[in-house]
Amino acid sequence: SQKIEQNSEALNIQEGKTATLTCNYTNYSPAYLQWYRQDPGRGPVFLLLIRENEKEKRKERLKVTFDTTLKQSLFHITASQPADSATYLCALGAYNFNKFYFGSGTKLNVKP
Amino acid sequence: DAGVIQSPRHEVTEMGQEVTLRCKPISGHDYLFWYRQTMMRGLELLIYFNNNVPIDDSGMPEDRFSAKMPNASFSTLKIQPSEPRDSAVYFCASSGDYSSGNTIYFGEGSWLTVV
């Protein structure tokens, strides 16, 4: 069965540094990968989507890479701020929702 | 758009009671999802609908759980009878099709505590 791995340990970084979160997957060839942000007590909020034929996507301070050979996505937040502190989830999907899975998320703590 | 609307936001009920969670998806979205989130198991897909038809209910834990979508603007998730292990946050979410990027929009969740 498919498996999605995100670092279960919290990532603690200093304000201003670049945060890098990892999403690894096995036994699956997704058509796209998404990243969501979840704050305590709230539902996940969509951030970025990257398709299988794309290597990199950027949105403001966010950057996502997608390596289908390594079966890995990296999510970067540059010039991190305490307001970026949250849990970040990756999600993989096929062309429809027949196979769509969320990772367990990584908690990011940005310290001032 | 008001986003995905869920009710109730919080519910505390006694074991054995029936629980009904409600959801209004974003207008125009073809897909509706019910997820459950706990610390131990993370975000789990329970069931999803496409154009009001249940497509995959393999995540529904057992017969005590049922979901319906009588029309495009309303869905319910029912637990009968409820048990303490059902305590979790239940999210409803909706999405358009692949051309819109399959972005999933979540509601704020229904926090269920079964005592």
Describe, in plain words, how this protein is organized in 3D:
The complex is a heterodimer of chains A (112) and B (115). Chain A is mainly beta. In chain A, the strands form two sheets. In chain A, strands 2, 4, 5, 9, 10 and 11 form a six-stranded mixed beta sheet that branches. Chain A has a five-stranded antiparallel beta sheet with strand order 1-3-8-7-6, with no helix packed on it. The model of chain A has no long low-confidence stretch (mean pLDDT 92). Chain B is mainly β and 115 residues long. Chain B is 0% helix and 55% strand. In chain B, the strands form two sheets. In chain B, strands 2, 4, 5, 6, 9, 10 and 11 form a seven-stranded mixed beta sheet that branches. In chain B, strands 1-3-8-7 form a four-stranded antiparallel beta sheet, with no helix packed on it. Chains A and B meet through strand 4, strand 5, strand 9 and strand 10 of A and strand 5, strand 9 and strand 10 of B.
Largest interface: A-B, 23 and 23 residues
Helix/strand order of chain A, N-terminal first: EEEEEEEEEEE
Helix content of chain A: under 10%
Please bin the fraction of helical residues of chain B.
under 10%
Question: First CA to last CA of chain A: what distance?
Answer: 41 Å
Q: Number of helical runs of chain B?
A: 0
Hey, roughly how much beta strand do the residues of chain B contain? Answer: over 45%
Give the CA-CA distance, first to last residue of chain B: 36 Å
Oligomer: heterodimer
Question: Which spans of chain A have pLDDT < 50 for at least 5 consecutive residues?
Answer: none
The main sheet of chain B comes to: 7 strands, mixed
Radius of gyration over C-alpha positions of chain B, nearest whole angstrom: 13 Å
Major sheet of chain A, described briefly? 6 strands, mixed
Mean pLDDT of chain A: 92
The average pLDDT value of chain B, as a whole number, equals 93
Percent in strands of chain A: over 45%
Low-pLDDT stretches of chain B: none
